[in-house]
Fold this sequence. Notes:
The protein is mostly helical and about 475 residues long. About 80% of the residues lie in helices and about 0% in strands. The protein contains 18 helices and no strands. The longest helix has about 35 residues. The radius of gyration is 22 Å and the shape is globular. The two termini are about 20 Å apart.
Amino acid sequence: xxxxxxxxxxxxxxxxxxxxxxxxxxxxxxxxxxxxxxxxxxxxxxxxxxxxxxxxxxxxxxxxxxxxxxxxxxxxxxxxxxxxxxxxxxxxxxxxxxxxxxxxxxxxxxxxxxxxxxxxxxxxxxxxxxxxxxxxxxxxxxxxxxxxxxxxxxxxxxxxxxxxxxxxxxxxxxxxxxxxxxxxxxxxxxxxxxxxxxxxxxxxxxxxxxxxxxxxxxxxxxxxxxxxxxxxxxxxxxxxxxxxxxxxxxxxxxxxxxxxxxxxxxxxxxxxxxxxxxxxxxxxxxxxxxxxxxxxxxxxxxxxxxxxxxxxxxxxxxxxxxxxxxxxxxxxxxxxxxxxxxxxxxxxxxxxxxxxxxxxxxxxxxxxxxxxxxxxxxxxxxxxxxxxxxxxxxxxxxxxxxxxxxxxxxxxxxxxxxxxxxxxxxxxxxxxxxxxxxxxxxxxxxxxxxxxxxxxxxxxxxxxxx
Length: 466
């Protein structure tokens, strides 16, 4: 059973039966589950606004930024570092910087988690990221150059830190049995918020709204997330103190546990593959945007990139919503954790095999849409479920370490792969896709080892037969 909802039970059977189309919800559980769904909706709405905005800022703004710096007295070596040849390479470098920044963020978060209870931890972390939004709003308004690079780095940290913290909160509220049933339903909030954020970003780009306007709307959505968390916390009276490890032990929590080490390796490989795939897609996206401008279908490459990504994210998340609403809970029910852990690497394997043999942009977009949709629905649920049998310290410190440092360390490995392959070795997109195929095969092997460890620790319930 889950923790006491501390609120009114659902009296009408119709609403409960409707929710059971998506997951097995029991009487008394719907109120908190729906509020958590709304909370995740607000968070993902905010994230997809800034995620869509970051793409044109980092892919198309480098040349404009260099023009702004012409009159600045900067050393030539610094100008050469800033003058990266192409947007996709700058994007890869920004992804690598995220991992470096997280080397400081992870121990700081672990130190904080060991000293405050869970609700204050969420409020303090949200306040930090909201303050960053205010600073970026001011920077965009003033037209400060190279903010796009810093913004890209910040968005990556914001996403993994806040989403990980949300799921740690859910893991703290629910038992393993209840989490298996309710996490697919709660995850629908992400699958609704993501396309809504992408569609809203597309509308704002279509109206040629400035970056300061888009980031301001994202800030409002983040405030709604905080208000929703406050409502959930008020409903749920259990206010246990977070007994986290000290900051110096946050990595030790992961490294000393075979189970957590395997989770970390699987997540690292997942993100290395996915981020490399984003580089492949960005190469195609930039070419498509330039072609659209050349045909007279647009006037600005940056704006066309923004609209292309907004449309791409929209359809990724529509598919993710359908998978989350109608597939994930049934996959968990009939296959247990095995199905949700193995689904994504199998989908990714097919997509990168297509890219490696030289498939066109349409097929690459379809394959990448399927991969990301599976990641945001099936795999996100799997990642949350993997932490259900862990201790409170592992849920907060260990999970935050895996979901921030190891996720972004995957970005660093991807950046090394991309920059070395494309710049030093002269390997094209097909060759990089071939390297991704090898990484996916390694990812599959580690996933089998992780599932074997899960069976050793916590025997899974027998899959349903009806």
